[in-house]
Amino acid sequence: MNIHVTTGRWKLGLFLSLITASLWGILPIALKVLLNQMDAITIIWYRFLIASAILVVYVTLKKGLPSISRMRGSILYLLIAAGIGLSGNYFFYVVGLDYLSPSTATVVIQLAPVFMLLGSLVLFKERFSVRQWAGFAILMTGMFLFFNDRLNDLVSRLNDYSFGVLLITASAVIWAVYALSQKQLLKTFSSETIMFCIYITGSVFFLPFARPAGILKLDTVHFILLVFCAINTLIAYGSFAEALDHWEASRISMVLAIIPLITVAAVRICSFLFPRYIMPEHLNALSLVGTCFVVTGSMLCVLGDNGKMKPL
């Protein structure tokens, strides 16, 4: 298997990773508010549609539409895997968010980079170091602490809360499939071309289940949020895809580990500035400590021996 080699432009990779982390950190807040006036599948469909419409213009002007003849064999399978992965990630995440708070959803989805790393270890025959296993243990401890006051809801029975957590976990697993497929596709296509193919596929797939007319019922605030979610989708995943071209996946995963802290902080700020739309989250001290543990554990997970990060 040909393995994608990064350009080594780590400063650009870091910058793009920070953009991705910031946008993914605030995205669940906007989605949570938008879910009050629009169903999950329609939101997903519009995110794909708007993003693909913008990308078709950009890709056509810059590179020209991708050649269908190149989409065969292993490349076609990787494109299908990436498309299913990102579409499934969107679906399970937004539906799960309907049952959870933004901070809870963001803490659980933090498993995604870890699943991505685990997948890379399997594909490229690497092993976890002692430091990485310690990080994984800290991450899981952080999860336990974060859910300290809701553990009974998670383990005793299947209710709305536990169902939401399961959906977000499924979203994290499927996202790892997308990310690993994307990494290998960069050997053949540019990041813009890959995202264009994925967004077009998602737009077609979700159309039969969407309710496009729902946009006419949105007020100004929720319409702006819908557009923001679509632009967020384009910029965040575009930045992530481009970052993979310049920086190792393990390093990118380490930057993405700060997303829960961004979300927790953003919820507090937004609930203060916009109390009509954002409800404050009452996280106890153990939950806040757990969030920090999740971030720390995620960072350690992507560290190799002696604190050196292992590239894919």
Walk me through the structure.
The protein is mainly α and 312 residues long. It has helices at 10-34, 40-62, 74-97, 102-109, 111-123, 130-146, 151-155, 160-185, 191-206, 220-246, 249-256, 259-273, 285-301. The longest helix has 27 residues, at 220-246. It is globular and about 55 Å long. The two termini are 13 Å apart. Mean pLDDT is 83; it is low at 305-312.
The total of helices stands at 13
Assembly state (oligomeric): single chain
Could you give the count of β-strands? 0
Q: How many strands, which pairing sense, and closed or not: the largest β-sheet? A: none
Distance between the termini: 13 Å
Helix content: over 70%
Could you name the ranges where pLDDT drops below 50 across 5 or more consecutive residues?
305-312
What is the mean pLDDT? 83
The shape, in one word, is globular
Strand content range? under 5%
Q: Write the H/E string, N to C.
A: HHHHHHHHHHHHH
Tell me the radius of gyration: 19 Å
Q: Which structural class fits the helix and strand makeup?
A: mainly alpha
